[in-house]
């Protein structure tokens, strides 16, 4: 079955909104409730017993809440989607690495795989398929101004 442009647009919209909400709400919680310092203390400092230097745990642990908040917000409005997906993909790689470092048989199907599936879907879809995004509106205006 060949997907119509409209169906692809809705597929991108729903995938982008769900993934955006997942990361945005995680960022809201980590920035405003847990706090970035609390995030580091709860999720990153337990890795002091590994080969990772403490300064790197602080740097990455402080950055991730803001990357999730901003990346999720960008996905929700559909602006700079590619860049947001790359940043959030890096977060997923870091999270995967961390979980594997402490628990080699971590159940990825609960946390990482659903997010990764949505992220990969959005990355492989042609950008023009995501018609309900701010990126699409901007691109359409640029084309209109060039003619």
Largest sheet geometry: none
How far the N terminus sits from the C terminus, by CA atoms, comes to: 35 Å
Low-pLDDT parts are: none
Work out the count of structural domains: 1
Q: How much β-strand is present in the residues? A: under 5%
Describe this structure in words.
The protein is an all-alpha fold. The protein has one domain. It has six helices and no strands. It has helices at residues 5-33, 36-44, 54-77, 81-102, 112-124, 134-146. The model has no long low-confidence stretch (mean pLDDT 95).
For the structure shown, list the relevant keywords:
6 helices; mainly alpha; elongated; single chain; 147 residues; 75% helix
The gist of it:
It contains six helices and no strands. The protein has 147 residues and is mainly α. The longest helix has 29 residues, at 5-33.
Architecture blueprint of SSEs:
Blueprint: H1 5-33, H2 36-44, H3 54-77, H4 81-102, H5 112-124, H6 134-146
């Amino acid at each position: 079955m060949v997907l119509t442009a409209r169906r692809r647009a809705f597929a991108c919209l729903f995938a982008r909104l769900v993934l955006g909400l997942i990361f945005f709400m995680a960022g809201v919680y980590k920035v405003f409730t847990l706090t970035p310092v609390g995030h580091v203390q709860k999720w990153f400092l337990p890795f002091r017993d590994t080969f990772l230097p403490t300064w790197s745990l602080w740097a990455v642990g402080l950055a991730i809440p803001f990357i999730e908040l901003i990346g999720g917000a960008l996905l929700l409005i559909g602006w700079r989607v590619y860049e947001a997906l790359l940043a959030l993909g890096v977060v997923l790689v870091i999270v995967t690495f961390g979980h594997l470092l402490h628990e080699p048989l971590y159940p990825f199907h609960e946390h990482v795989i659903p997010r990764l599936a949505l992220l990969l879907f959005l990355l492989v879809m042609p950008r023009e398929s995501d018609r309900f995004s701010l990126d699409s509106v901007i691109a359409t205006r640029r084309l209109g101004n060039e003619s």
